[in-house]
Amino acid sequence: MRVDLELSSREPGPRDSDKPRETNPQSTFTHTTFNGQSILAATRNIISKNTLQFQLGLLKSTGRYDCFKLKWHPIYDDHRFWPVPPHLFWDSDLAKWMEAAIYFLSHQYDAELDQAVKHIVDTIRSAQREDGYLNLHYILVEPGKRWTNIRDMHEMYNAGHLIEAAIAHHDHYKTDDFLSVVTKYVHLLHANFGPGPGQRKAYPGHPEIELALLRLYKTTGDVKAYELARFFLAERGNPTGQDGQHYYDWEMVRRGEEEHKRPNSYPMSRDYWYCQAHKPILEQESIEGHAVRATYLLTGVADLVCLHKDGTQPLADAEEWTAALHRLWDNMTTKKMYLTGSIGAMAQWEGFGIDYFLPQAPDEGGCYAETCASIGAMMLAERLLYLELDSRYADVMELCLYNTVMGSMSRAGKAFTYENYLASCSGHLSRREEWFECSCCPPNVSRLFGSLGGYIWHFRTNDEISDDGGHVEEEESAHINVHLYTSAKLEFKTPRGRTVSLEQKTNWPWEGNVMFTLTQPRATSLRTTVRLRIPSWSRGAYVLTPSASPETPAALEKGYLVLSSEYIAANPSFSLAIGGFEPRFIAPHPRTNQRTLTLARGPIVYCVEDVDNGWEEDHFKDLVVDDKALPVAEEEREWGGERYVALRARGWTRNVGGWELGGRAQDEEKGVERDLVFVPYYFRGNRGGKGHMRVGLLRP
Amino acid sequence: MRVDLELSSREPGPRDSDKPRETNPQSTFTHTTFNGQSILAATRNIISKNTLQFQLGLLKSTGRYDCFKLKWHPIYDDHRFWPVPPHLFWDSDLAKWMEAAIYFLSHQYDAELDQAVKHIVDTIRSAQREDGYLNLHYILVEPGKRWTNIRDMHEMYNAGHLIEAAIAHHDHYKTDDFLSVVTKYVHLLHANFGPGPGQRKAYPGHPEIELALLRLYKTTGDVKAYELARFFLAERGNPTGQDGQHYYDWEMVRRGEEEHKRPNSYPMSRDYWYCQAHKPILEQESIEGHAVRATYLLTGVADLVCLHKDGTQPLADAEEWTAALHRLWDNMTTKKMYLTGSIGAMAQWEGFGIDYFLPQAPDEGGCYAETCASIGAMMLAERLLYLELDSRYADVMELCLYNTVMGSMSRAGKAFTYENYLASCSGHLSRREEWFECSCCPPNVSRLFGSLGGYIWHFRTNDEISDDGGHVEEEESAHINVHLYTSAKLEFKTPRGRTVSLEQKTNWPWEGNVMFTLTQPRATSLRTTVRLRIPSWSRGAYVLTPSASPETPAALEKGYLVLSSEYIAANPSFSLAIGGFEPRFIAPHPRTNQRTLTLARGPIVYCVEDVDNGWEEDHFKDLVVDDKALPVAEEEREWGGERYVALRARGWTRNVGGWELGGRAQDEEKGVERDLVFVPYYFRGNRGGKGHMRVGLLRP
């Protein structure tokens, strides 16, 4: 008989038997410290030192900071973007920044950030209505109209981010000042939305609150939060949910809105695939619409299944939900994801195109590739790793992290991309901006890096009770699954109070050698298993030192090298050398019709930029590289105190003149040969230049 | 001093000095007879024997035939497609069918067609309102709302087709029964739309009436028709035309319609590029939006410039209009046209995508390629040839004719395509339909083939008066420009009553040898010049027999071999052997990112179909051909009494398995080698099969 118990070392709050066990990533990131000079640690330092303060300044100068004081701001009169006014996301901008700031505060005190968080929380508390309602727009700008446009007006989305910020606040400050506010709001929502008579059969146009509610449930055990999330997920896309109608149709009629009046993101009237509400989630065959909404939604679904898996809240149709998760994940990662870990080819709905439609740039048919969407993909991957330890999830998580997500911020931490094209064009140069009117991405990057430890690894502890023919023995076990490699240390206590730590040291992502040291009390019955991801791009090339033996076994399971407790006991220090760091050419799926080659090395995807290749005048549209004829050289470089590996190869520009409609097909004529310099895609756009850049170059 | 005079051998109607000279194609098609067994003559026979009667039956069974009796039809209650009800195009369906039927009647009497035309005209006459207004929808279904939605409701489009049918009716029946009806309607429009105070500053959402009005002007000399057309063209896209507003904004507000209520074809609110009204035509840099609207509009523009060119109605800014024509034509043919002569990649707005965006199928990013759009491109090309004799216009005209347009009809003449994909996919098999709810294409094909002679050649006659130092000599000249080759005969009279005929005999498009015989009175002062197009795909390979000499010169000018009057006088029978009939591989522009090869032979573009290549299960997505390694064999075939040339070559299917995101780029692995059979694209979908087809195959 085995009883799985989860470690819970940090939370105050409910401790009774209703308290659910944690799922992730919230369970590990506070247990992680980063050390050394890795690019991840450097990025965290930049955010900690520059970005959060810089973004705080922008929150102040744009009016966001004090918006919950509920004074009129001129921007509230701005009606350019029907139905969504420019201030509609302010609640979430504040909340995401607070959540990020708190994550960093939990590692290092900063008086300015600390004061700002407390100030914002105070204004939010003061703005909450008597009944618990809390939304800037509907309290101040359109009072009396709350819940009249659940589809477009982001009330629930904003609520979700407030909840997540409140959880972070509660965990760090150990008070309920903010948590009680959002709990009251959640109870109001729970009373008004649900399956009961008289309740609205609605679900948010922009999913987010689902995963936030499930985090809240995991923090406080508040079953209303769980019920509300589960209702939102199960009800979504019901064609006859509200009085026999699709909820969004029903509320549209009540708003007095005609069928053919619709936001610009809806290409056709009532195209509810835009917000994944075209049919119930369990019936959805492919991932569709707005990519951030889709990944946030599926993260919520995965959280629901996680709670089933760990026995906290059983789900009768868990298999169906799991099947939907796998189906939509597979569709996304095999048919709708760029080589950089970006998703979403379509600008109009900020989301997915049809299968295999992955042009590199807006002027080549479409490319949107929003930063937040790849963050959403990482969040989803992290939950899927909890449900099923398979390196294919972690491979995608790492791809998103080191390329789209990390590259969305300048190396100085004060400029950001919203869209992450794989190639620039004259209308969209490879540049970053300080801020956006809808500024979801910049604080989301801060937040992601603030909780980065949760993506690096998972841990779990068990009390095992083996009843061997009347002879009862008890022993503890710890399981650590290492998804990403960097220089960092994980430290946690077992239920019996033993401290376990695992430290990894590496020059990843530039080299594949990782040194591990596990520390735990000697001579205890604590048995520790460590699972190490073997990335698929390594093609299974790895060396474990000391090597395993029949007495200290290690085995590969679904892309993870499982080091048995015997191995760990015998080798508390060990190293893993992962191969695949020679430069390689990668390519999009043949069905994309993008017959291109891209240089990659380890998890890093490369691009060409005009800064290094100054002869380019047209976004490298005609540049050809040959994966067979040309050797690729490596070159260590340093910029702004950070080291990176550049690559050099030969290529040539094709001549495209001479084409005529109906004329004879010509061979692609070799034009000028070029020595090419490639830099990591994340590093693009930091050194000036004309803003010409490309990831996928033509195959010969 | 030269005085150009145009031949006008057929029209009754005004003969005073206001009578404008004709432009084309209306000037030549009634002078042309088709003979022999060419594919064009065969297609005309099919339409004459099968299609017109078949379509008449459909007009009757669907309610169109008697709709102008103004009785209620259940379909008028059908509101599925706001704002356009399904019956909105019925006026034009009837008109286009009548126009087509009359063109064929002018060559051969058919009692059923003749009676039907007369019946429809009677009902139309009886339906016209007292003040001249004439539109089924606004007379019967929404009385009192005329001209409230010029943008979407196709009133002017329907009027245009009625005008064109009335011109055909007038020319054939030599009565004003129908012409007087449309003239009265035009006068009503002229009174209500124009630059004067109190007049509406509107222009049709779907252009068509512009070219129809200019045809009417050329037929009757009615200056009001000219003025109205010119107003529509000049006013179009005026941002402040109506009370300081864009007309479509102005009328939308008057309808009580909000900005964000819009038809499904408008991806964003107020996207007036959909109907080429985003800016004035003279300022438009690229061809945009709905492809049929665009080509019809530019045909009207070209007609306007034609009237300037021949001195009938001077146009102060003719150079600007000409520049706009060239700019938009060039954009269309070099960046937005498929290899089959199709245009329009985007289904949502039935029109143009961005430059170089030309996927082959809906499941590969988009392909719409409407039949009517290629007919519009032919109409435009024909006018441009009148303005500037350059074979590049005729090359496109021929490409459209033999591929998209001819292929839109089954060889039995009773099934049609609306969209002409270059590749089938599971949602869009390569099939034809008998009819469509919006059935613009089928009668348009009939109409095009009815007036085909106007596209084959142009002619012009001059009275030349040379005043050589007091010694006045008069002589006549005739000029015949041969754009397309087929077995046909052109016959016309000069102003002095001399009959000239040019006959061509050829097995085109299968062979390039064309025999010409010019017949004209012997020993007169009539000097005749013949210009013969040398297609660009022939790469200038041609042999003229007898050959030219210094005394009987011939010279190549802009892709036309100009046979001097001396040559013609010496060689009334001559032949031209054009090369380029060996199979060739053609390819889309490199910038399309469609790295494919297509077989062509002469003007015929080829495809593969599963009927001949029965192993195919997935629309030939993985089929590769090599233009260098493989010989292409020809094979004469016969089907349904028609001969065609099939092609055979070797190819192979690539293996696409084994791809993984971020994994090493693989060489495209050769799978199974195949003997491939290629048939003309126009011939596709006639022999059953699974409906799998593709034009562009992968390059190795």
Q: Can you tag this structure with a few keywords?
A:
homodimer; 700 residues; alpha+beta; 9-stranded antiparallel beta sheet; 6-stranded mixed beta sheet; 31% helix; globular; disordered N terminus
Biggest chain contact: A-B, 62 and 62 residues
* Average pLDDT metric of chain A: 93
Number of β-strand runs of chain A:
21
Weakly predicted, low-confidence segments of chain A = 1-26
Strand content of chain A: 15-25%
**What is the radius of gyration of chain A?**
26 Å
Helical content band of chain A: 25-40%
Number of distinct helices of chain A: 16
Which structural class do the helices and strands of chain A define? alpha+beta
**Which oligomeric state applies?**
homodimer
Report on this model:
The structure is a homodimer of 700-residue chains. The first copy, chain A, is an alpha+beta fold. In chain A, 31% of the residues lie in helices and 19% in strands. Chain A is built from 16 helices and 21 strands. The first copy, chain A, has helices at 39-62, 90-105, 111-127, 136-141, 155-173, 179-192, 209-220, 223-235, 247-254, 291-309, 318-335, 371-387, 391-407, 441-450, 453-456, 565-570, and strands at residues 2-4, 32-34, 457-468, 471-482, 488-493, 499-506, 513-519, 527-533, 542-545, 554-557, 560-563, 573-578, 584-586, 596-601, 604-609, 623-625, 633-639, 642-655, 669-680, 693-694, 697-698. In chain A, the strands form 3 sheets. In chain A, strands 13, 14, 15, 16, 17, 18, 19, 20 and 21 form a 9-stranded antiparallel β-sheet that branches. A 6-stranded mixed β-sheet of chain A has the order 1-3-4-8-11-10. In chain A, strands 2-5-6-7-12-9 form a 6-stranded antiparallel β-sheet, with no helix packed on it. In chain A, strand 6 and strand 7 form a beta hairpin. In chain A, helix 2 runs antiparallel to helix 3 (111-127).
